Amino acid sequence: MHTVKQLSTLAGVSVRTLHYYDEIDLLKPSSVGRNGYRYYDDQAVFRLQQILFFRELDIDLPQIKAILDNPDFDLVTALQQHRQALQTRMERLQTLMQTVDNTILHHLGEVNMSKQQLFKGFSEEQQKQYEVEAEKLWGPSVRETARLWNSYSREQQAAIMQEGSQVYLDLVAHMSQGPTSPEVQTILERWHQHLRYFYEPTLEVLQGLGNAYNDHPDFNATFTAIHPDLPPFLQKAILHYVDVLETEWLERELGTLKE
Amino acid sequence: MHTVKQLSTLAGVSVRTLHYYDEIDLLKPSSVGRNGYRYYDDQAVFRLQQILFFRELDIDLPQIKAILDNPDFDLVTALQQHRQALQTRMERLQTLMQTVDNTILHHLGEVNMSKQQLFKGFSEEQQKQYEVEAEKLWGPSVRETARLWNSYSREQQAAIMQEGSQVYLDLVAHMSQGPTSPEVQTILERWHQHLRYFYEPTLEVLQGLGNAYNDHPDFNATFTAIHPDLPPFLQKAILHYVDVLETEWLERELGTLKE
DNA sequence: ATAAAGTATCACGCCACGTCAGAGTCAAGG
DNA sequence: CCTTGACTCTGACGTGGCGTGATACTTTAT
């Protein structure tokens, strides 16, 4: 049995906090003496630990009470929602920091930020940047794809799909040679060609795909199913493939300039 | 000259806020009629703009008053200090999110997080690890997803992937209800939540994914393997899901405009 | 002239306690 | 036994930035 002070020092909270938790029925003392003193047993200590844990997660007290009092409470959903809230706050903090930075720079005279910008463009700027990235990755390809793909017959579609999966199987067969090996890179040319059944991918889209193969859950799951090491392997291999294409393109450009 | 309502709609704040700012001498009306009405001229409008700017930076009102009332105020130093405070708060949020994630995974039963860790997991040891993760996350933002994904343990990754595939299985089980049915839409919330383990998807990205699930060869193959009708079903369902979210968002925006 | 919209001033509520104030309780030392 | 000092109780007010009424007045539109 602990008194308020003992529990407060034990748990690192103030006595007032324990009074308050008693008041709002979040943590009742295990027993109360005839003198009115509060006494807490080990079970109460444990409950306090739990309370403090959820409090540390920035969950408000009524919700903590709901969680602890109802064991059937959908904890995971609640936590996921909470996670989402945290995420939102963090994003907001980030834009704030950027604005503060800009303001500092503005005030130091290093950046010319018009007053309009200063008072107007909080979230718009970043928002647009995200949109551009999304559009880059998925916009042009997806629009084109639907038409092309639907223009094929069922048999053609099946054949194309099978050809596609064969590419990945061949890739797995050559994984030991390393992602930048000529064999693998040659197979990637087939992969590249294969994509053209659906749309004409830009280099950026290719690279985006390479990253998505590793980073995006559904892609990752697909390729992990084929071989557990395939996603990172594909990412590296495609990165190299794109690099080479880019270099070749650059050299061609420089060549024509020289002419 | 503007009345309270005019200024409030103009600046996007409530009338009560203007009353309050008057009360604490942060923004006094330029003149007060014999009827007691508050009137604001353009100078007051400008000051309000400034107030809102600093408020957006999460600076408390007394300090804003100090900044605006004292032209010799060392703004840059104040902003730098403020920036530091924001940074600290963001780091804290970062650790919170990690802990929430761990707790979710723990509750999914896939990870053995000892109770010590669970209730005491704010030790310096972990603290440092979190700092590293934060650096990872906020450094080069392009690779954010991969780093986050790789920051999970093998078991965590497995748990997440399994949770993901469960989503699709549940979707197939409810396909007969139609893509816009509440059951399906509820499952899509889990899908949305699940993506957040990897990155924060914008609505555009969600829609792009929905289309890609049907149109992109690799996605299509994946989901066709689960169920032959799943890709177009998913596309329709996600389109509706995004539509609803977009509508809700729009209504919220219009709602705040009305105030 | 009347209804609707706008305006004013109190004044309480919020959240998670901090911080007194005043009074009672307990263990230890002289 | 008495004092001292540490501890306990309840009750009440303060915090920040307003939201949300309640109630009464004024202006505007029909």
Fold and architecture overview:
2 copies of one chain form a homodimer. Chain A has 259 residues and is an all-alpha fold. Chain A folds into 3 domains: 4-69, Multidrug-efflux Transporter Regulator, Chain: A, Domain 2 (Orthogonal Bundle); 75-122; 133-258, Antibiotic binding domain of TipA-like multidrug resistance regulators (Globin-like, Orthogonal Bundle). Chain A contains 12 helices and 2 strands. Chain A has helices at residues 4-11, 15-23, 42-56, 61-69, 75-107, 115-120, 124-151, 154-173, 182-195, 203-215, 217-226, 230-258; strands at residues 31-32, 38-39. Chain A has a two-stranded antiparallel sheet. In chain A, a hairpin with a 5-residue loop joins strand 1 and strand 2. In chain A, helix 10 crosses helix 11 (217-226) and helix 10 (203-215) runs antiparallel to helix 12 (230-258). The longest helix of chain A is centred in the middle third of the chain and has 33 residues, at 75-107. Chain A is elongated and about 90 Å long. The N and C termini of chain A lie far apart (91 Å). Residues 109-144 of chain A have low confidence and may be disordered. The interface between A and B is large, with 64 and 63 residues. Chain B binds a DNA duplex (30 and 30 nucleotides) through helix 2.
Label this structure with key terms:
12 helices, 2 strands, Globin-like, 259 residues, Multidrug-efflux Transporter Regulator, Chain: A, Domain 2, 2% strand, homodimer, 3 domains, mainly alpha, elongated, two-stranded antiparallel sheet, DNA-binding
